[in-house]
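Predict structure. Chain length: 87.
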Amino acid sequence: MEPMKGTEPWWPEKLGQPSTSGSQNGMRYAFFPDAHRLLIEQDGTLTSYDSGDHRIDGVSQQDGGSKSLTFTSQNGTVDLGSLKKAD
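Prediction complete.
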């Protein structure tokens, strides 16, 4: 019997390990504080956001018509739409 393999990271290896990550309703997120990056994978598309001075530590998802994502940081709530997309 072979040992179970761990889950492969879905984020670029160069970012290292996220301080927080999770998934719900077909969406995954991972936050990398040293790189100031929040990665979101939704419907097979990976998008990177510049988190600025936010230290993301949680997520809230609204399933209404907008499917909006809100994150929590040391500064309070952060709407995904307020973060700039990064390369």
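Summary: The longest strand covers residues 27-32.
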